[in-house]
Fold:
Amino acid sequence: MALRGAVRAARGRWARPLSSAVTPAGTGDTIFALSSGPGRCGVAVIRASGPGSRGALQSLTGTPEIPPPRVMALRHIRDPQSAETLDRGLVVWFPGPRSFTGEDCAELHVHGGPAVVSGVLQALGRVPGLRPAEPGEFTLRAFRRGKLDLAAAEGLRDLLAARTEAQRRQALRHMEGELGRLCRRWSRALTQALAHLEAFIDFGEDEDVEEEVLRQVAVTVRALERDIRAQLRDGRRGELLRAGVRAVIAGPPNVGKSSLFNLLCRRPAAIVSPMAGTTRDVLEVTLDIGGYPLVLSDTAGLRHATDPVEHEGVTRARARLSQADLVLAVLDVTSVSPTPVALGAALAALEPPPGVPCVLVLNKADLLGGHGRSPSVTCGATPVTLLSCHTGQGLPELLEVLTQQLVQLCGDPLSGSPSLTQSRHSRHLGACAAALARFGRGDSGDSGDIGDSGDIGDLAVAAEQLRLARRELGRITGQVGAEEVLEIIFRDFCVGK
Structure:
């Protein structure tokens, strides 16, 4: 409570919108925050960034001497007003531009007790010219000073929020700038094509500029459009991995949907009862399945309900089913014929969304007894697993099938080109591809298939399409038009990053 109170009090004196809190590089004020996260811990890291960070370090250590750059030194940390010793810890000095933000930075590594952290934060708040950082402000300053692009900043945010191994791998690739490098490579090719096209427009009548230039520009544009459209055809893999695959447990009443939900959660998250129609609302939990995030929903049994409360539950179940990325269709194995035709009909009766992959779970396998039913049942291309939620029989097989489905939906985050993890990535790339598709069309907008002859119609219009395409690529990395997305990107960062 003392720590939160210290931060609130300091922020109340300095509160301002994030967009106005950070001024252009070189004129910003000095910010500070706890960067290691709240709560008791062995070591807490408090960071300051800006032109006053050197003076802050000198004030809190009580000496004009600071350690050599990037070398930890043991110091007594004191209140600059009362000279009271607050702690003894390690301090590090990062002179700009060789720091995370590109500015002068100082770090205090102190003991992680709330009283120690609160005391140091209050002491920093009393240093003239310092103020508490807003969420994401350190990273925003790093972006403004060219230490990372917008796509890399989004990767850093995703890395801080990653809950599974696959999410960590994908976020790390983005934080290290792979998507930004890919966009810059495309942008360089576009810039070169635009330069050649404009040279032909300006000097086309000179014998030094040949018609071959136009043909080469057309070939380059065609290749870029193919590459970008291939990147867009990734099935939203990056977005699914970042946000989690939405899986919905669906089926008739009393087939064990809530029991399956509890079994996968490994805790009694849903009420289980032999009475049909117990589940009335949608329950949701996020799980780690084979290193992939699964946002699992338990829903009401699908049937024609006369009770108004159950009817509302069925309506919500169908609404959630329509938004699913994966469906776990649960049936009672003792009341359905194990033939592909019967299973297919039972699955179709649940009305899963078209094109959404399904896993058919035949529950209550422990009730088969000695009937000798074969476990090798099939339902076309839909995976089928036999399960007993009561005994746990078949759970390893179900988890293996789920992992396979998640791999197909999300892909391998370490292979291929970097995925598009944000809807804005897809939007800007789509606009870029559309501009490239319009390249070579006349003012009438007629089809403009560019032949090997290099006939690309109105050259001035074609050049403008290349400029539009390049501008859309720049918006992904923040080279152009970044201001309108800064608040959206950085508002979800934690304070201290």
